[in-house]
Structure formats: structure tokens, C-alpha cells
Amino acid sequence: MSTPDLFDAEPSGSDDMGATSALANDSPAVVAHQLREQLHQHAHRYYVLDEPSIPDAEYDRLFQQLQALEAAHPELHTPDSPTQRVGGKPLSTFVAVRHGVPMLSIRTETDTEASGAESFDTRIRKELALDDQAPAVEYVAELKFDGLAISLRYERGVLVQAATRGDGESGEDVTQNIRTIGQIPLRLQVGAVSCPIPDVLEVRGEVYMRRDDFVALNERQRERIAGGARQEKTFVNPRNAAAGAVRQLDPAIAAQRPLSFFAYGVGWCDPVDALSVPTHWDLLMCLKGWGLPVCEHGSRVQGAQGLVGFHARMGALRDRLPFDIDGVVYKVDRLDWQQQLGFVTREPRWAVAHKYPAQEQMTTVQAIEVQVGRTGKLTPVAKLAPVFVGGVTVTNATLHNEDEATRKDVRVGDTVVVRRAGDVIPEVVSVVLELRPQGTQAFRMPHQCPICDSVAVREEGEADYRCTGGLFCSGQRKQSLLHFAQRRALDIEDLGEKLIDQLVDGGTVHTLPDLYRLGLTSLAQLDRMADKSAQNVLTSLERSKLTTLPRFLFGLGIRHVGEATAKDLARHFGGLDAIMDARLEQLLQVRDVGPVVAQSLRTFFDQPHNREVVEQLRACGVTWPEHEPSAQAQLPLAGRTYVLTGTLPTLSREQAQALLEAAGAKVAGSVSKKTHGVIAGADAGSKLEKALALGIPVLDEDGLRALVSAQDAGGVDNESA
Ligand code: IVH
Question: If you placed Cys at 350, which of 55, 101, 282, 332 could pair as Cys (CB 3.0 to 4.6 Å)?
């Protein structure tokens, strides 16, 4: 039943993807066309197939070449140009869009057991009047993505409009924001012969946010809030974050929110018989052939048994998926049967959503404890009556900090809603106030460390109380050791929480280097530690000694230095000594390092005992390869981003860009808060307006020349935004 001609759809123009050199003699229109083709292909490989064939820098180069060409020849602009993903103006409101075919919802099967799938199959067989002898019905089983439904309208293969579901009949025009999603093709690829692209096509699918993108976004939001951006907020879950981004009036902000997309169906198409495939599965293959992302977990299955198997398989996979799902969807595969089955009110009879046990459950709070983190941060944690949620038994849920605990007003004895999705730490979402018993007491954050009794302080502008005990506090020491040993840092495999508790409590280990001084005898004396396990610990310690600079830096547990920052620092400086000795201004030149991170690094390495720890670790044999600092890092405008707009009196756009890049700056296509300056010439448009609105320095050609000829970073500091 498979349809290899659909599967094997080759993207068009894939043969000439690298052929930029042959462009020199062609007309600008031809060059622009070829560049767009190449960029479309590369974007598809990068965002949809996840297998880029060229480095990012090469993509940027092609992109900038096209941008320059379009700037010089405005008549060459097309709506499907990759340069048009970002750059729209903020809207004051969304315009209503009528869907060609209503966007339906799906009936939900609330029975989360296998029987839920069986009863759907029974109903379908009955409605199709199939007797017991008739073969199993074929279904397509898909994941039920937890995002928001979007309809994409393509006219002659070009994306012209994107709309939310709204009330099903009409939604909101969110085209500008949807364009910023790299996975959504601005132009469809020519697919297989059996799938010609209809003149008009509405693609239906789900916009969602991956869990890792969600966690990183919230981390960035927290950093922004810590840095004083009071209007920013963190998001409750990936779904809310995605919905907020899609309904964002300013496309520049939407572009910074990492969204993803899966296509799962087709709405209106013109001519109506343009899609002549017989099954839903074939339809999915057409979508895939046109370059749209179709989830790889979708599967064609037979009968009730096939549905039950899919439900079980995906249930087991659920936690390891990179995105949230709240169930699976079953669809009758044959399109003629779908038509025959028809609809009841707003729901098709041929589809059903089969849920999984919820990732939110109710339970009671038995106690509220305060835990101490490696930087001394005190975190209130609700101790819960064990509850099965999101596939595991949960007994703890974080209340984050004093303000969050106060806002949620969680009390011992309360009944609460707990949420756990994927690897995300379980959270108390809300209190069920109707069930609050009499005489409960509001939680008060202690002003003392629960472990070492040192004073805990909450500094001005900070959300957290911190224990001031430093290395004296065994709670902090244990967490620092765990952080250092974790897989993403030094990866000391056999060094777990229980062992660290014993080592610290027994006084064997005080600091990180003490780990490498452990011997077989001291280990083997510990509780439940046989010689063999002790030997395993020593082997993993020995193995951990050869590491990388980013892992080591991250493992030190410097506040605000996560894995990404550690990598950026290592790439920029090449070696640890250069980082330890870098001045604030030098640290600020590293990509994505702002004042908070830079100061935190300085504070850490200004402490003699921290340097001592580093020296001792090196003396114990911990080592990593180092390299020369990146050439880029030494340039005067390294780490700075500029935007060019309008026509300069003597320099062409390419020349201006080349000057900036030669001085180490990056040239971006749009203005944001992160832009360091805008170089504006005659007829500058919205970019100039935006720069002025954001208070970003604006320079003319002379200013640009002065900027790039400044010999040291000091010469440009006073123009920084
Ligand atoms: S098909 C006629 N397939 O679930 C059926 N919907 O209540 C139309 N959803 O908001 C939808 N994953 O956004 C379909 N694989 C999937 C889906 C899916 C998630 C959402 C959809 C809609 C809701 C339906």
C-alpha cells in the first residue's frame, strides 16, 4: 500500500545548490532568483530535514548577497523571498480572516485506556456498515501536538496568509509572525508527479514550541527580568509561550520566540479536485514532498489493534519527545470513507483524539521545605502526597522563590494542582481554594539557612534569598559537587547524590579537588560501598580528568554561566587563564555576554579561593585542550551588531558591510534592542524609525568611517546602546 513515488519526491533545484560562482555574468533578476532557490533549499535542509549541507556562515553570506541585491534593485522584491521572514512593522490589531473550509475540532475520547481506541474502531465499522468478515480498517495515527492550530494559505505555491483557528469559521491574520518560523516554507517545492501544487491551497497544522526552546526562552526571560526588564514575564508552559508568540503584534518580538510547526492536513484547495490522492496518508506525503514538516511519528495502522499499539508506543515515548503532546489522533485513511462518514456539528466522525493521562493532577501539600542550591539560593519546595502525573510519581514540586510562593499562597494542608511535562521539574500550578482546610498558615520564607544557620539575605532587585555561609555551608558544597560531577559538566559517572552526602557529611570532601584525592580505602569504608563500586568511582574520576574547557567552566558553577555561555567564552578566549584575567570590557565583547554575566565572572575569579580551587584541580591532573583566541575576538568591534539602511553618499551597501565586518562587527537585517548602532543614508525607512524609537545610536557615513577606524575598543565604547 505504500506509495514510493510520493515518498521519493526530490526537492527541485537541489543540483545547483552550491553554484553561486556561476552567477557573475547573469542579470540581477536571474541572480536573485538563483539565490532565493538556493536559500529555500538550504532552509528546508536546515529547519525541516535537520541536515544542513553548508555552514551557517555560508548561508548568511548567500542571504546577505540576496539582501544587497534586493536593496539595490527594489523591483526584484518578492513576497516569498527568504529576506522577507522578518522586517514587518508592528500592528495595532489583527485583521479577521475567513477560512475557505472551517477549521474543525476533534471529538475527544476520554477513556485513556486501550479500550478508548477499540470503541472508536467499533463505531467506525458500524457506521461504514462493515460486517465481521470485512478486513481491518486502515487508519493514520498521529500525535496530538499541544500547540495551536494554524491555517497557511498558499497561492501558486507562495505563502500569502496565515491565520489562527479563531471560532473555526474565521480567525486572525498572523502572517507576519508565522513568516518568522524557519520551518514553514515561504514557497512550496515542486513535489512528485502525483502531487501537483494546487493553485490555492490551505495547509492545516500546529504551531508549537519545543521543550528545550521553551526552557531556554524562560531562562532568557528570567535573565532579562533580573537585568531590570520589568515588563517581561516567564511562560507557564510551551503551549502558552507559543500562543503568545503567534498573537504578538510586533513581528520582531515574535521572531525571537523559537517556534516550530507540523503540517497534518489540508483545508480549502482550488481547483477542488486538484488533490486527487485517495488517502490521508498520501496527502501527508504530498505535504512532505512540498517541503512542509510532517511529524515522523505518524503511522499507517490496521484496525483496533494497530491503534492500541500506536497509543501504547507513543505513550512510552511521550516523555522523551522533544515537544509536548496531550494524546494521539486517529484518522480514517480512505478519503472517500471520510466523506461518507461526514460530520456531527463541528467534529468529523472519521477522527478522534485519544488522550493520555494528564500532565496535571491534584494532590495535597504535606510540608514546605527550603532547599539550598550551590550558589546558596534558597528554594521553597512543596512536599506532596505522592501523585502519578505525566508518567511518574511526584513527591516534590518547586515553589521557585518567596514572591512565587506568596503569589500562589500555597499552604501546608492545601490541595494543589501539580504539573509535570517531559523532563521539566514538577510545579505547583495553583491552589484549589475551595478545599483549603481551616486554620492553615501562610508560608514565610526563613531568613536563615536551614542547613548551616547562616543569615540568608535577599538583595535589592533579586528574587531569591541566599545563604551567606559560602563554603562553610555543607548544603552549598554538596550542590556544587553535584553540579561539577553531572553529565553535562565533568561527567563523573558513579558519583551520585547519596555518595556526595556521605563524603561531605563525613568530612572527607570539602572542595572540588578533594574528589580527586579520594582513595580506595576511604571510599570502601563508606556505607553500602563494596570494593568493586569504590573502584568504579575511582575509574570514573580518573576518566573525567580529560575534559573540555566549556565543560570545566560550566562545572565550576559560576552564577549565570550556563553551557552556552561557557562555550562562547571558550571559543572567544581559547584558554582558561585568559578568561580568568579578562577585564569586564573584554568579557562584554563575547557574544551574548551582558553586564550581569560579565560581573559574575569577575566576582568569581576575583576570589582567591576560587582561583586556588582551579589551580588545585589542574594540579590533580584535570586538563583540556586549549587553542588560540578567535581572531574575531581581537577586533575592535567584536561582539557588536549594526544595521545598514538607506543609501550612503559614497559607499555601496556591500562596501559598508565589508568595512564593519572587517572590524569584527556583525551586520544584521533588522533593528532590535540588541543592535549597537544603525548606519543610515538617504531614504532610510522603518529601520531608522525603529532605531530612533529604541534610542539606538544612528551614524552617517562619516560616523561609520570613524567607527571602523577606531583602533581600540575604548574608541567606540561611548556609542554603545
Ligand atoms: S486534525 C478534522 N491532527 O487538535 C480534524 N489536529 O480539536 C482537524 N491537533 O486545535 C484537526 N494535533 O490544532 C489534527 N495531528 C493532529 C493534531 C491536531 C493537534 C489539534 C488541532 C485542533 C485540535 C482539534
Answer: 332
> Using the 8-state DSSP alphabet, how is residue 137 labeled?
P
Cβ–ligand 1 distance for 80 under 6 Å, the answer no
CB 276 within 8 A of CB 257: no
DSSP state of 258: -
Neighbour count for residue 175 (Cβ, 10 Å): 20
C-alpha cell at 457: 539575605
- Model confidence pLDDT, tens digit, residues 279-320: 999 999 999 999 999 999 999 999 999 999 999 999 989 888
Strand spans (E) along 136-210: 138-145, 148-155, 158-164, 170-172, 200-208
Is residue 711 exposed (0-12), middle (13-18) or buried (19+ Cβ within 10 Å)?
exposed
Asked whether 320 and 392 are in contact (CB, 8 A), the reply is no
Contact predicate 120/347, CB 8 Å: no
Domains of the chain as residue ranges with CATH? 17-88 (1.10.287.610), 108-355 (3.30.470.30), 360-439 (2.40.50.140), 473-544 (1.10.150.20), 549-619 (1.10.150.20), 633-715 (3.40.50.10190)
All cell numbers assigned to 297 = 511519528
Provide the 3-class DSSP secondary structure of residue 420: coil
Cα(380) to ligand 1 centroid in Å equals 38
pLDDT in tens, 481-490: 999 999 999 9
Write the single-letter amino acid at 721. Answer: A
pLDDT in tens, 536-576: 999 999 999 999 999 999 999 999 998 888 988 998 999 99
For the Cβ of 329 lying below 6 angstroms from any atom of ligand 1, the answer is yes
User: Is pTM beyond 0.85 here?
Assistant: no
* Residue 249 near residue 92 (C-beta atoms within 8 A): yes
The CA 40 to ligand 1 mean position distance, Å, reads 28
269 DSSP β-pair partners: 201
Is the CB of 280 inside a 6 Å radius of any atom of ligand 1? no
Contact by Cβ (8 Å): 579, 553: yes
State the residue for C-alpha cell 576575583.
606
Mean pLDDT of the chain: 87
Question: Does residue 673 carry a catalytic annotation?
Answer: no
